[in-house]
Amino acid sequence: MSKIDGKILVLDDDQGVLYTAKMILKQHFETxxxxxxxxxxxxxxxxxxxxxxxLDMNFSYGLTSGKEGIKLLRKVxxxxxxxxxxxxxxxxxxxxxxEAMKEGAVDFxxxxxxxxxxxxxxTAIYELSKTKKQLENLRASQKIVVRDQHxxxxxxxxxxxxxxxxFEAIKKVAATDANVLILGENGTGKELVARAIHNSSPRxxxxxxxVDLGAVTESLFQSELFGHVKGAFTDAHENRPGRFEMANHGxxxxxEIGNLSLAMQAKLLTTLQFKQVTRVGSNKAIPxxxxxxxxxxxxxxxxxxxxxxxxxxxxxxxxxxxxLPPLRERIEDIEPLARHFLKIYGKKYKKEKMRLNETxxxxxxxxxxxxxxxxxxxxxxxxxxxxxxxxxxxEDFLLVERPNQNVIATDTFNMEEMEKQAIQNAIRNAxxxxxxxxxxxxxxxxxxxxxxxxxxx
Length: 457
Description:
Layout: E1 4-11, H1 15-25, E2 29-35, H2 41-47, E3 52-56, H3 67-79, E4 85-89, H4 94-103, E5 107-110, H5 115-149, H6 164-174, E6 180-183, H7 190-199, E7 208-212, H8 221-226, E8 227-228, E9 240-241, H9 243-246, E10 251-255, H10 262-274, E11 276-278, E12 285-287, E13 291-296, H11 300-305, H12 311-317, E14 320-323, H13 334-348, E15 355-356, H14 358-366, H15 372-386, E16 391-392, H16 415-429, H17 434-441, H18 445-454
Parallel strand pairs: 1-2, 1-3, 3-4, 4-5, 6-13, 6-14, 7-10, 10-13, 15-16
Antiparallel strand pairs: 8-9, 11-12
C-alpha cells in the first residue's frame, strides 16, 4: 500500500506517546516528525509546513489546565492561520476541548487513544487540509480562467505560405513539454499560437493561464506569479496561489516577457531552474509541473547583448522558437481574415447580411497594416458599426498610410549626428514616451538613456 504524501508533526512531552504515534502514522504517511520539547516549535514551523499538527495540551509536570497547549495553539495559528491542529490530552475536560476549538483547533483527542482512533482522526484532518488547499487553488484559478473565457479566442485563420512553418512548429512542439518562445510584432496573434499549442497538447484538459508581464508592476511581481500567504503584506487578507500554481500541470503563457526588469528576470530564472515556487511570506517550496510559453515583440537577442535581458533566461525559455510574420508578409490572409471578422462582428451587432465587395478587398490588401491582424480586426468591427449599408465600401475604412517615421530629413552623413537626429525623431514621434521610443529605435531602454546622456538630450 502506497503512503499518503502528507507531513505530520506530533508534539508531546511523553516519549512513549511520540514513539507509538510515529510507529502508527509512519506506516501511512510519508513524513512524520515527533518532538518532545515545545521550545523547538518555532524552529519546526520555520523548517516545514505540516498538513496536520498533533499538539499536547500539557507539558509541565503536574499541570492539567491545558493552558500550555492553548498558548502553543495560538502560536501555531499566528504563524500559519490555516494550520490544521489536533489537540491531544490525557484529561477529557470538556471545557478545555471547547476552548481549544474556539481558538481554532480542528479536533480534540483524549489519551490513551486506540491506534485506529488516532489514525482515523489524523487521516480525516489531513483530507480536510488537502480539500481546503484544492478549493483555494480552484477559486483563484477560476477567477483567472472565467475572466479569460469572456474574451473571444478565434482559431488561427490563414492560407498564406508564410504561416506554414508556424503551423508545422505548433504541430511538432505541442506533443512535448518544451518551453516555447513566440516572437512577432504587436497584433500578429502570439496568444492564439500559444493557445493552439496548449489545445493540441496532452495538457489540454488543464488550465491555460496568461500573464501580461507588461501590466505587472515590480512590487506585485512575486505575489502575482508565486502567490502569497495571509499576512505576508498589508493587503494579503487571505492565502492566494500565484499564476505558476494555477497553471500547475497545465500551461503558463507569459506575454511581453521583454518588459521584465533584470531583478524580476532573476526571480523567474530561479523558479524555472528549480521547478518550484515559494509563496511570499512562506518558506515552503511547492513543486511545479508547468509548461511555459513566452512571447514578446522586443528584440531579446539584442537586449541580451546589451545586458538588458539575461542570456541564461533567454536560453531557458527558447527551447523552441516560433516567429510570426507580420500581416504585410501574408497578404493572402487579408481576405479570409476580413471575412472571418465580418462574420463574428456581423453576428455580434446583428448585421449578419454585411458583405465585402472586391474593390474593398483590394483596398484592404493594398494597406500595410502596421497594427497587423489586430488592426484589421478593429477596422472591420468599426466599419460594421458605422456603416448604414449592407455592403462595406472602401470609404467605410479610414486607412491612412503613415509616413515612415524612421526616415530622417538631414543633409549630413555624420554617423553620430544621424544617430542623434534619429533619437530625437523617435522621442518626438512617441510623444516623449522613452519606452516606445526605444522600441521604435530597436534598442533597449538603458541603451537609449546612455545615448541621450551622450548627446545631452
